[in-house]
Amino acid sequence: MSALDFSTKIGSKRFSNPIFTASGCASSGSELAQFLPLDEIGAIVTKSIMTKPRTGRATPRMAETPSGMLNSIGLQGPGIDTFLEVDIPWLVSQQAKIIVSIAGETVDEYGVLARRLRAVNGISAVEVNISCPNVENRGQVFACHTDTAAAVIEAVRRNIGGELPIVAKLSPDVTDIVEIARSVINAGVDGLALINTLLGMVIDTNTMKPKLAGKTGGLSGPAIRPVAVRAIYQVHQAFPNTPIVGMGGVASGRDAFELILAGASAVSVGTATFGDPTAVIKIKNQLSELLTQRNFDNFRDAIGFAHRGV
Ligand code: RRO
């Protein structure tokens, strides 16, 4: 049997393998670099960056949950100036494939970030995070409404030029994710990132108060995997030609394969990295073995396989 072709594509960009990090779970990659060579990862998706440095929400901002965890980080980060001066050159020096995640408080801020990125060398795509659950004003979750979701993507498309693929990161906390996907596809995205965390809450029954200082947080980990599989399946069914970067509780090659069968063209590993920083490489190797066992000689033939003949 011939060697597996493990490569994948998002828009015009090709990636040597389909296992990526998930935004927010490996910052800009430097913590992971002590455990593994970053150039073996399909792509590093950086923590969503904003126009200005930000300290994030008050602590505690993590809480354990059954088969998962809640986070309430609140977009902590260095801001775009330091990110472009320090993080990007360092990632480029590691020969990492880079997907930059961006987040704004207003449509204009997304446009400003896109303009800053358009001339930067070494970036393969931009993830437009329109679905952060930990914003002060829940009315500002752009991905919860078709019009605001589209407005952000139009601003990014206008400012970034035609070269860099744009991937919109959507929230599962909506009535109909297919309608949100439709609006951002019409607004010009090249791909979708499905799914961000679900909004959750934990109350400590000893103190009788919420465990997180910010009260609510984003739920991630294996508990949300069936939600991710469902969202990917629904969106792939409606838009089979739009590449999906799938994420949500992937902790093994088998889990990644499940998201791929649902329709993902690539899979990001997030929460699993906290327990095992080498998870992303282990999952890549397990997936490669599984595809070979199932007689796939081209990874791309497995994308959306669960839809065939249904
Ligand atoms: O920073 C966060 O609190 C955060 C973000 Br930007 C996001 O997109 N998803 C999440 O669970 N947390």
Describe the protein's topology.
Blueprint: E1 8-10, E2 13-15, E3 19-21, H1 30-33, E4 44-45, E5 62-65, E6 68-71, H2 80-93, E7 98-102, H3 107-117, E8 123-129, H4 146-160, E9 166-169, H5 177-186, E10 191-194, E11 198-201, E12 203-204, E13 209-210, E14 216-220, H6 225-238, E15 244-246, H7 253-262, E16 266-269, H8 272-275, H9 279-293
Parallel strand pairs: 3-16, 4-7, 7-8, 8-9, 9-10, 10-15, 15-16
Antiparallel strand pairs: 1-2, 5-6, 6-14, 11-14, 12-13
Helix pairs in contact: 3-4, 4-5, 6-7, 7-9
The protein binds ligand RRO.
Residues 24, 48, 71-75, 103, 129, 132-134, 196-197, 218 line the site of ligand RRO.
Protein model, in words:
- The strands form four sheets. The chain has an eight-stranded parallel sheet with strand order 3-16-15-10-9-8-7-4.
- It has nine helices and 16 strands.
- With 310 residues, the protein is of the alpha/beta class.
- Strand 15, helix 7 and strand 16 form a beta-alpha-beta unit.
- The protein starts with 7 loop residues before the first strand and ends in a 17-residue tail after the last helix.
- Helix 3 packs parallel to helix 4 and helix 7 crosses helix 9.
- It has one domain: TIM Barrel (Alpha-Beta Barrel), CATH 3.20.20.
- The model has no long low-confidence stretch (mean pLDDT 96).
- Bound molecules: ligand RRO.
- Ligand RRO binds next to loops.
